[in-house]
Amino acid sequence: MPDIHDRIREDLMNKEIELWTALTSAEPAPPIIKLSNPEANFLFPKKEVLTLQDERRFRKALRPPFHRFDSYEMLDVRLIIIDLMAGTVTCKVHALRDNKKYRVTSHTTWSQASDGEWRIVTHQETRI
């Protein structure tokens, strides 16, 4: 049986994949809102800090073609357990749309909510 830290790492990796699948989808806002802590902060390149406090603004900022990619790949993934209910995932993401490349470093902090689900606390992307 895997130890608790291995299960946390697996949970965080699955959530990060779920996040990036949502980010690169045709309509990212609804699944990202579902994955997020109500007080989450999002820092995307060339955008103001986004929060869920103004959901209309959040949805508008993530309207297509925001991050609509044909494919993406996560590289150099590092998972750090902060404690049994919090962790971070850092990685490089290489994405492609119409032969145009998008390269970022990504950092997401996750916390476990009272319902046991992992929720985004912060997500940041920095272009490289």
Outline the fold blueprint.
Blueprint: H1 4-23, H2 29-35, E1 36-43, E2 50-51, H3 55-61, E3 71-83, E4 86-97, E5 100-112, E6 118-127
Parallel strand pairs: 1-6
Antiparallel strand pairs: 1-2, 3-4, 4-5, 5-6
Helix pairs in contact: 1-2
Descriptors:
single chain; 128 residues; alpha+beta; Nuclear Transport Factor 2, Chain: A; 6-stranded mixed beta sheet; 3 helices; 27% helix; NTF2-like_dom_sf; DUF4440 domain-containing protein; DUF4440
Q: Describe it for me?
A:
This is DUF4440 domain-containing protein. Residues 16-120 form the DUF4440 domain. The protein has 128 residues and is of the alpha+beta class. The protein has a single domain, classed as Nuclear Transport Factor 2, Chain: A (Roll), CATH 3.10.450.50. Helices cover 27% and strands 45% of the residues. The protein contains three helices and six strands. A six-stranded mixed beta sheet has the order 2-1-6-5-4-3. Helix 1 (4-23) packs antiparallel against helix 2. The radius of gyration is 14 Å and the shape is globular. It starts with a helix and ends with a strand.
Quick description:
The chain is 27% helix and 45% strand. The protein has three helices and six strands, in the order ααββαββββ.
Based on CA inertia axes, which overall geometry fits?
globular
Cα radius of gyration in angstroms: 14 Å
* CATH level-two architecture: Roll
Count of individual beta strands: 6
Mean pLDDT: 94
Spell the H/E element sequence.
HHEEHEEEE
Strand ordering within the main sheet? 2-1-6-5-4-3
Distance between the termini: 39 Å
CATH class: Alpha Beta
Structural class computed from helices and strand pairing: alpha+beta
Instruction: Detail the poorly predicted runs.
Output: none
Largest sheet: 6 strands, mixed
The percent of residues in helical segments reads: 25-40%
- Estimate the strand proportion: over 45%
Fill in the CATH topology.
Nuclear Transport Factor 2, Chain: A
Domain count: the total is 1
Number of helices: 3
